[in-house]
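FORM 7B - TANDEM STRUCTURE REPORT

SECTION 1: FIRST PROTEIN
SEQUENCE AND TOKENS:
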Amino acid sequence: LPRLQQPVRLAMLTDLHADRYKQAEFFREVVNRTNALEADAIVITGDFEDGHLYSLAPALAPLRHLKARWGTFAVHGNHDYFSGHHVWQRYLRTLGIRFLNNEHVLPGPGHLVLAGITDPAAARDNCPPPNLEQALNGVPQDKPVVLLAHQPRIAREAASRGVALQLSGHTHGGMAPGLRELVALFNDGLVQGLYRIGDTQVYVSNATGIWSGLPLRLFTPAEITLIHLVPAN
């Protein structure tokens, strides 16, 4: 990043998992807390819902009130391909969310590149699989790249392509001691918090919501993550 008077601030949400147990009140609280951070951009790294649009659209409707200077950007997670991905994406776009499906943008004043990839589960719904090469095609060489990827295990490929920071969810932080080690086996050891792979930093969130399929959290608090980006030197 160039020398700036203020850091670039990204507010990160992930794994919201709208379902019959989490209704609009929960998401209004998430929106209020996120907006209070006054971020430059809001990023959402997938798993918006667990169910069908007709029953869960009202729960996620408060997301239309997310506010950031440069907007709200997102990628899909594996659960987003289980319940009618195409209709869900159309609806979520009406809430003002910009999806990065194997593509990139230069948000705001263009200090950095924000890229995003689809999820390996995309094939379940006849959608394009993740393609990091396509997402990074044509990025300016003098701009740091922030990559949104639901699953963290693409991090080594991202590092080989010069990504500066990868933001991921999916693991829910391992949910609890004992389970954390098992979750690590399926995610290349990337489960919770900040990692470094070469010159690339990888942040894996504990998740903002909880999955009702395994509603467990022990010493693994939910989070809305505020990330400050500053020049390396």
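SECTION 2: SECOND PROTEIN
SEQUENCE AND TOKENS:
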Amino acid sequence: ALYRPVLSLCVRYRYVLILGTLLLSLVTVPLFMSLGSEYMPPLDEEAIFFMPITVPGISIEAAKKLVQTQDKIFKSFPEVERVFGKVGRAETPTDPAPLSMIETVIMFKPRSAWRPGMTKERLEKEMEEKLRMAGVQNAFTMPIKARIDMLTTGIRTPIGIKVFGDDLVTIDDLVQKIEKIIRDVPGTRSVYGERELGGFFIDFVPDRAAIARYGLTLAEVMDVVEASIGGIDVTTAIEGRERYKINVRYPRELRQDIEQLKRVLVAIPQQKGHMRRELHQANGGVGGRVEQVPLGMLGTIEAVMGPPMIKNEGGSLSGWIYVDTNLSDIGGYVTDAKAAIAQHLKLPPRYHLKWTGQYEYLERVRDLMQWIIPLTLLIIIFLLFLMFNGLAQVLIVMLTVPFAVLGAIWTLALARYNTSVAVWVGVISLLGIAAELGAMMVMY
């Protein structure tokens, strides 16, 4: 009773329907372009993983005090049940975390015990405000999510920037400039560029002429530096199943500063002939021979700043920048950040940037979907042609697919969802369902 009147109205106002469909399609295009994008929608793990980073070269005591202070602040929130903060690493190469990187797991009480109207987003914002400290850049994530991100990309924040080049000094300068630019991009919660030259070292620069004058070789001098200052493992102590290396070197009072290091003695082998006479004269004519010479007379000892860690990727040196954002639209944020960098910074020749983290996966998915969705449509058309054995029926069925896509886009916009891998998998399934429903209508 309803089918024929509806069909009659559709036939009578077919041009109005066609025009309305065209207008709806035109309006949907800018709506689709305005949708945000992310790799995967976040799954609430009912916990927060707090991963701040501070300046390199921080002492163990200062790092320990910083962790204790942060734990007390976290525990002051009534929604928090327990807090566990960790700094440093075990004696294992699987987790090369420096002292400047802190990892804190915050477990929550049941939602019924939270303050009225409190949400996780509001709670993170309050924590961010109370945990602002000089020299510390905060980053909030979740435990499982953070581990997966670090295992796959090495970046512990949602977005990371890698600066590639040939010189660490230039890379460090670019990292600091990009850090200042990103800080002003809307949506940036925190940004930290690793200081590639932030480590403190004591360098011994040998004087080859002085070493040769005393009848020594460079290897002999460097062996003394390695053994007496750095220490050398001479044996292993065994206590049951435990093994302890025994390291021999000068006591701390003889190597605690540069002036003490200059007094480290280097043994000189006994010389003959004219070399003995030269050494005798160099010693001021006192004694028959010179048997030891201070290290300060064989080179220069100075305190310098250098790279605490050298990262190499793809045959180039690299510097990393960690970016934490309070926006779920990762793709839109990176687009704004790229525009800001292009406007304020010009990279030198042979230097380039790579955006990583979740954005790296997002780009891969975009490239993948560019041929997966058209391939899905071609498979649907092929199967429909085999079933109907006619092109007209296939075209009638495929007319339903654009309407399904339009409905999906408007649903995403009204629900304020971003496009993601999960969304595109749903869209692909929707194409099949729409084609299946159209085929049933044509058949019956």
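SECTION 3: OBSERVATIONS ON SECOND PROTEIN
Residues 286-290 have pLDDT under 50 and may be disordered.
The two ends are 17 Å apart (CA to CA).

SECTION 4: SIGNATURE
Preparer initials: ____
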